[in-house]
Amino acid sequence: MGGSTPPTSRDVARIAGVSQTTVSYALTGKGAVSASTRQRVMEVAESIGYRPNLAARSMRTRRSGRLAVITGMTFDNQLAMVQGASEVAHAAGYVTETHSIDETVAERTDRTLELAVGGQYEGILTFVPVLPSALSSDRSTTPVLAATAFDENMHSTGELADASLLDVFVSTLAEAGHRRFLHVAGPDHYASARARRETYLAAVERLGVESLGVVGGEWPAETGRQAVLALPDDAPPLAVIAANDHLAVGVLRGAAERGWTVPGDLVLTGWDNADFGEYTMPSLTTIDVDFREGGRRAMRLLLATLRDEDPPASESPLQRIMWRESTGPVAPLD
Amino acid sequence: MGGSTPPTSRDVARIAGVSQTTVSYALTGKGAVSASTRQRVMEVAESIGYRPNLAARSMRTRRSGRLAVITGMTFDNQLAMVQGASEVAHAAGYVTETHSIDETVAERTDRTLELAVGGQYEGILTFVPVLPSALSSDRSTTPVLAATAFDENMHSTGELADASLLDVFVSTLAEAGHRRFLHVAGPDHYASARARRETYLAAVERLGVESLGVVGGEWPAETGRQAVLALPDDAPPLAVIAANDHLAVGVLRGAAERGWTVPGDLVLTGWDNADFGEYTMPSLTTIDVDFREGGRRAMRLLLATLRDEDPPASESPLQRIMWRESTGPVAPLD
DNA sequence: CTGAAAGCGCTTACAG
DNA sequence: CTGAAAGCGCTTACAG
């Protein structure tokens, strides 16, 4: 109301008739303060709307209590990862700030480095790829941890990019009698897309089934539609393994446009368990990926690093197959 | 490498053989410094990896150069809004930090207030509803601006929640001969959902067409599916106005389960132009909402407030109708 | 063109 | 149980 600058701890001290030290002790609960003094200080602080200046506190304590989470904001599933990470961080008493950095890998790396040395964060978790130079190996600087399903730099990424269930798709469908396959892939600079493509190629090779090859190369639905439109008339019966659900819904559309039924002429699998996949006609067989839990685990890892503890052993799988209508009747191997 | 704490401007000064003042002037480009001195300072700063401690700078200048963007991270379209807002902020030389705050309105309000008085941000833009108490009216404190399509508190929200195009849906379909309507609504505590419901009710009343009422009340696809499954057998021919595309895809599924064709037995409209809507069978007539531009405009508004300028006059509409297959042949009124 | 000094708001040994 | 004083790293009048 009155002045134009927010009240400081000095204001509280003056009004409460105590020292700034006592205010600090009373409010942070650290020093020993008599109950009555603490009471008075808290009342004054409340009444004048005092809130500590975090920049000042952080500068003094060299502990900001803040963690940065970096995301590219491109995919819905990043949301879930961020939420999982924030959840764990908050439970541990940290505040998280999400920085959405699009732009190139090099720029992201720069920005991440800035955040790391800016002294505002105690740790940084990134869900988008950065160059290895941004990743801290020692404890002399702010720890930067990368937990990403997508990696433009050919560096491995862990369970979120795990594509082993794609082998189960191919094996189960082959078991059910399907002899001809097609993979509609995502962009090659994504570790997840690469892993799926490689798993696909290994599976068709191992099982000795026919493959019409790997097509696609982008994530959007239109790519899936075009992939089907480009198929020869005698392609069916065909099992289409799409790299995600968006591609799969495009495949569905393309099949309808060509008069092919699913399942029937085509069977189809997706990936990610997007919300619409349960309601398409037919509904999509897909992989449910627990991005939220993936985010939680990544944050637990960062927390362990901060505390110099051993990383928690990771338990249940993050992925599971959702058999639905688009694959027709199958006898799941697992 | 060496010490465990990052280099400070004092370190740079010592090594470069100048004062801390000169380092500051050289690096911020503010004071008058000779070219050679500036050169040397910058080289030293670079060589020892100096980066200013933002907390310290912020405390001194009382200008953080940072803006907070608050989101709930619940909807995909929030992403686009955040990106639009960040884009505008960056262009104006600000860094934005995205805080995702789920929890209740009261808690969000508290957290927002903390951010506002924490002294770290020059302005705050929230895309999720907060209580009016968090919204600053004067310039004595950090400006907090709410730009949300969703508002739990019955306070108006502007163009993102504008539902007037729903009237065009109903009018155009009535013009095309449809006589019976149904609205599958979203949750009532969303301003956008309320606006759509009210616009629907006004439209059917004005046009004198039959309405089977307003059903639904949640956003997910399953609600749309259930709405159709609950319909009497003689409901078709029926025009279904769904409050968003997720509900619409559920309606599509429900219709298929009952053996009803779309368009034919049912015509259907959605809202938001979700990416899958172009690929469902039939594709969804919907409203394209330019969330990214909505985010840009909101940030321009905040920036104008910060600079005590007049808010920029807002130009083109944020919404437009996408006529697709789910409404069958119509002659758009507009 | 350059530097010594003060101060942003807080916390924390230290002394009483 | 309480307070005076120092200092976190920076910027900025001010004096030279």
UniProtKB/TrEMBL annotation, chains A, B:
It holds the Pfam family LacI. Gene3D superfamilies: 3.40.50.2300, lambda repressor-like DNA-binding domains. InterPro entries: HTH_LacI, LacI/GalR-like_sensor, Lambda_DNA-bd_dom_sf, Peripla_BP_I. Signal peptide: none annotated. It comes from the Bacteria. Keywords: DNA-binding, Transcription, Transcription regulation. The keyword DNA-binding applies. The keyword Nucleotidyltransferase does not apply. Residues 7-61 form the HTH lacI-type domain. SMART domains: HTH_LACI. GO terms for molecular function: DNA binding. SUPFAM superfamilies: lambda repressor-like DNA-binding domains, Periplasmic binding protein-like I. CDD domains: HTH_LacI (cd01392). This is DNA-binding LacI/PurR family transcriptional regulator.
